[in-house]
Amino acid sequence: MLNVSSIFQRFLLVFSMRVFSNPVGSGSLWFDNLTTADGTPVAYDPQARAFLPMPPFCINREVIGCNWIAPEQGAFCRSCAMTALAPDPSIANAMPNWAKTEAAKRWVLDNLGRWHWFRPEDPGAPPVFHMLAEGLTPVAMGHAGGVVTISVAEVDPVLSITRREALDEPYRTMIGHMRHEIAHMLWWRLSLREDFLEAFRAMFGDERADYQAALQRYYYEGPTPDWRLRYLTTYASAHPHEDWAETAAHLLHLTDIADSFVASGLSSPQLPHPGWDPYSEPDARLLIHVAASLTMGVNHVNRSMGLSDLYPFVLSEIALQKLVFVHGWLRRGAQGL
Questions:
Q1: Which residues pair with 302 in a beta bridge?
Q2: CB count in 10 Å sphere of residue 313
Q3: In the chain, fewer beta carbons within 10 Å around the N or the C end?
Q4: Would you tell me how many other CB atoms lie within 10 Å of the CB of residue 246?
Q5: Could you give the dihedral angle defined by the CA atoms of residues 250, 103, 125 and 283, in that order, rounded to the nearest 10 degrees?
Q6: 141 near 149, Cβ under 8 Å?
Q7: pLDDT digits (tens, 9 = 90+) for 102-135
Q8: Per DSSP, what are the bridge partners of residue 44?
Q9: Local confidence band at 16 (pLDDT 50, 70, 90 cut-offs)
């Protein structure tokens, strides 16, 4: 008898975002695995989106636990090669914080690879990362000219919660930082297209407005009283650049929440069909509706354990229009199709 459920589960193990086939035996692997259950070393191939049981492994495997393959023995993997500046190892907790930060970067890069960003077929420049540890002075995260600066200290849960409370941000994680700052870099890439800039300004406003003055005004006066009607977050209201970065990050949040839900073998009447691939979904409004519906259920589960909501945001119609806009540009991919 044809076992549709079994076939569907095998489909998930091969093609889902976070659950993969074991290349040397039974069972499955998750995105961050270094070995199989029986201890066989494996590494992730981001091009094939599969685990391999043989080297070459990334040279950072023994340094920070990177589990991606390398193009040749003694080389960095595609993700680690983007890190031009590593944190000072003499600063307390720099190395373990860096390891967790690189893991978050690999996750986000693989997300974007679903839309062909920063893969070999991408004709444009990949991001360059400066990973900095914090001594006595905090590190200002940001993007400039293709360079993404990240404070690895932000993976520390105490520091993250402290800053979340101080800045009144309901969500603050390293994956969130990666998505936000890489979104700035993606804007920089897309801004080389005149058709993008014209469309962007019509949707988000003129990014040529004084950025520093806008941030000073935001931190001094706060967001406008009606920000919930026009933006996803208070910070998005500061400047068109930040509105884009927050919106793009949230599109990645929602798409990956839906993708990970499917990858885990969970089911919901909200899913369009078995084996649905959120990254291949052309209808942005459908994708966002499904993802938002799923988050409401997961939020409810979190509350049963006294935890914060997984996705503590409300989507206004204007914010939804912006998400649809970003989806249209990011999904067409780095090749601009």
A1: none
A2: 18
A3: N
A4: 25
A5: -30
A6: yes
A7: 999 999 999 999 999 999 999 999 999 999 999 8
A8: 51, 68
A9: very low
State the pTM of this model.
0.91
Contacts of 263 (CB under 8 A, 6+ apart): 12, 16, 17, 18, 19
Q: Single out the residue of 199, 240, 207 nearest to residue 329, CA to CA.
A: 199
- Smallest CA-to-CA distance from 95 within 122, 131, 124 is with 131
Angle between helices 194-204 and 174-190 (to 10 degrees): 130
Q: Which amino acid is at 245?
A: A
Confidence of residue 7 (pLDDT cuts 50, 70, 90): very low
- Residue type for position 47: Q
Q: How many residues does the chain have?
A: 337
Q: Which two tokens stand for residue 160?
A: 């993250």
Average pLDDT over residues 257-267: 92
Residue for token pair 């990334």 = 58
Q: Answer for the pair 239, 207: CB distance below 8 angstroms, yes or no.
A: yes
Q: Strand 147-151 relative to strand 142-144: parallel, antiparallel, unpaired?
A: antiparallel
